[in-house]
Amino acid sequence: MIIGCTKKLQDEIEPITQKRGIEEKELFSWSANLIKIKRRKAVIVVNDKNRFGFVLFGLKSKDFLKIDELILQGIKRSLKQLKIREEIIEQYLSDAGETVYTKTNGHKYVARLNKACELVGLFEDILDLDNVYQEEISIKLNYDLIKTDKSNYEHPCELILEDLKEVYGESVIKCEANSLLVKLDLGGYTAERRIVTPVDINFKKLHKILQIAFDWKDCHLHDFDIINEKGERELKIISEYEDEIDLYNPGCKVVLESEAYIRDYIKDEKIIKYSYDFGDGWEHEIIFEGEIVDYNRNHPFCVDGFGDGAPEDVGGIPGYEEFLEIMGNASHPEYKSMKIWAASQMYRKFDIDFVNRRLKYLELEL
Question: Which residues face 292 on adjacent strands?
Fold first, then answer.
């Protein structure tokens, strides 16, 4: 495995004497640079073929003595984030061979690396100050839209999947997933979405999935309730924007949605309730339907569904029923004004293809 280092990084590690070979494969070659973020040293590593990469932050002198280990761990973790099969990750590292440090491979690769470093600098507000490997920023880096030729743009996370498929076959993803049926109470009927999602998501990500699935605009507060078999609320899961925690039942535990994971609650015959917009009072029931051991996607996917959601700020169930009455009668005196209002709310009917396009790039919306 070739790690092409900029001059700044070369000065931090052992002297580089290895010359780059003419037969090296880009897929097994990476470029790395040293920058400072918040006065601490960070190493950005980017694959030469597809610009897939990761970020190591807060490195000290002792860390540079084990840079081999940190870079290999970074490659493994970034590939695991994409749900690449363990055996393919190990095969890739084996095929890459011994890690060799060289100078960078020319201006083209340095320019790509500099672009990645610029992007990382924009996200210093989401740095994880307690860990070297930066998961959130690495995800942002790999979902960036990069220009691959004069007229095409791609995401590095998709490019590396294609590269791995070309070398190791089509089945490179293995993801444990849950099938969830979500029912939105709209009064006279329910809108339903059946969603398959990786098992390792937290409730913060589940919130965003539900917003996309029902075409909400995420402009109101929300929370989750975990209801036990006795019908008692045993846990309230809230967003970081909630400032009225003290109003909740003192006997009910309250946790942040970023710290609670759905895998800990869906299999114990408990009911999960999702409430959105406390004024309009939209209630969703989440039902666990089963586990999928070998799911072939690494992102949430809406399998099926029916029923349109409601517009934002329509006035809850009574307002929605009035909205349907007016919109169902083109001769109604308020029809035109209601149609204009619905457009201003960016209201649309349920479109499963549109939902799945957004779910595929969920990380861009977090």
Answer: 177
